[in-house]
Amino acid sequence: MELTILWFVLIAILWIGYLVLEGFDFGVGMLMPILSRNKDKAKRDTERRLVINTIGPVWDGNEVWLITAGGATFAAFPEWYATLFSGFYIPLFLILLALIVRGVAFEYRGKINDDRWRARCDQAIVFGSWIPAILWGVAFANLVRGVELDAAHQYVGGFWALLNPFALLGGLTTTLLFLMHGAVFIALKTDGEIRVKARRLAGWFSLASVVVAGGWAVWAQVAYSVPWTWAAVVVAALSLIGVVLANAKAREGWAFLFSALAILSATVLIFGSMYPDVMPALDPANSLNIDNASSTQYTLTVMTWVAALMVPLVLLYQSWTYWVFRRRLSTKDIPPPIGLSLKKLKDSAFGGPSSGSAKNLDLTPATGEKVSGADATASGRTNDDPGSTSA
Questions:
Q1: In this model, does residue 388 exceed pLDDT 60?
Q2: Which of 166, 293, 361, 387 has a 20 to 30 Å separation from 194 between CA atoms?
Q3: What pLDDT does 115 receive?
């Protein structure tokens, strides 16, 4: 196999990993306020922390797949990288902004024990989940359809040209797939009332995905793809039906596997439709392909050796992480919040009456009970920061 083809396939695999793993992250973030509508503030917050903690140990590791895919594209196909990031500058900037805001909200939501603070962080998580879920679909649909490139392979279409009907349907498709994927994942990772709610939502979103994603896939196949990708369309359709049936029988594990397979098949359809182009143009003569967009043979050879050595280690480590944090969670596993008091934090920062001593910071739970260091260590968590909370 030529190295250009190999790296096109490897980049497709990296995107499969990202969309499958980060897909349920986005779904969890979008569904958090829907699954936690309890009128009691304390119970609502506990439910939201439960939902966040389902992805707490893994969400940042899942984003590594995006970084790796971007780096591999930059090194293997620099012309593709340059044209893509300049032409899709606005949507990619919005995605990056959303991911930053979302990550900060995850990390700092539990640092301050204040209702308004948590509400703002929740809004950031929801915003940071919806925007990428929509825009990734818009971006990939445009890659399947083709964009306006000139003879120098520069994008000349403008932002609004990206919002064509096919691309907008692609955005709706990824959003529904991620909502379904996230609902199935929450049902798989939780127990109790949240599990029941998530399974109910998974049923609705899986049915909607069969209609919307199926329509988009057939449109893409008929208008822009090649004969062999019909196999990907069929597998995706059967997988979505599998999600519906498995979810109806409360077989969350099978439902999650079928959901992941549906996203995998959709990604295969996207990259199969593009090949041998990496950036198809509306005028085929101006398209970027795996030959005129690639790096030198020496660069691709070095990258291949590095990938052969490092990728298996990364896969083993991430698989181990999922295995360690595999058990279900319930609201009983969520301890009282022990973030800092907002008033005392302000006093400490701006010279108020509580400043000058770390011991004045309020580290007690909302219930007013003291949490000893031994208890915090035994529970494995000190706040609802998903980066430090076991799932």
A1: no
A2: 387
A3: 86
Within the chain, strands assigned E span: 277-279, 288-289
CA 188 vs. chain centroid, Å, equals 17
**What are phi and psi for residue 366, nearest 5 degrees?**
-60, -25
Q: What does the angle CA 82 – CA 307 – CA 296 come to, to the nearest 5 degrees? A: 45
Name the 3-class secondary structure at 147: strand
Sign of dihedral through CA atoms 53, 54, 57, 62?
Answer: negative
The answer to whether the CB of 12 falls within 8 A of the CB of 267 is yes
Picking from 71, 23, 48, 25, the residue whose alpha carbon sits closest to that of residue 384 is 48
* 240 burial level (CB within 10 Å; 0-12, 13-18, 19+): buried
* Longest CA–CA separation in the chain, Å: 73
Amino acid at 58: V
Q: Return the HEC string of 8-23.
A: HHHHHHHHHHHHHHHH
What's the mean pLDDT in 14-39? 93
Asked whether the beta carbons of 28 and 186 are under 8 A apart, the reply is yes
Helices (H) and strands (E) in the chain, counts: 13, 2
Please write the tens of the pLDDT for every residue from 131-157.
Answer: 999 999 999 999 999 999 999 889 998
Q: Cβ–Cβ contacts within 10 Å for residue 140, how many?
A: 25
- Four-point Cα dihedral 341, 345, 347, 349, nearest 10: 180
Q: How many CA within 13 A on the CB side of residue 63?
A: 17
* Of residues 63, 76, 82, 73, the one with CA closest to residue 22: 63
- Amino acid sitting at position 132: P
52: left (phi over 0), alpha (psi -120 to 50) or beta: alpha
- Nearest-angstrom CA–CA distance, 176 and 169: 11
User: Which tokens go with 219?
Assistant: 């449109």
Residue 333 in tokens: 């596993």
For residues 266 and 28, what is the distance between their CA atoms, to the nearest angstrom? 20
Tokens 């050796």, located at residue: 305
Q: What is the model's pLDDT at position 353? A: 59
Per-residue model confidence as pLDDT tens digits over 224-248: 999 999 999 999 999 999 999 999 9
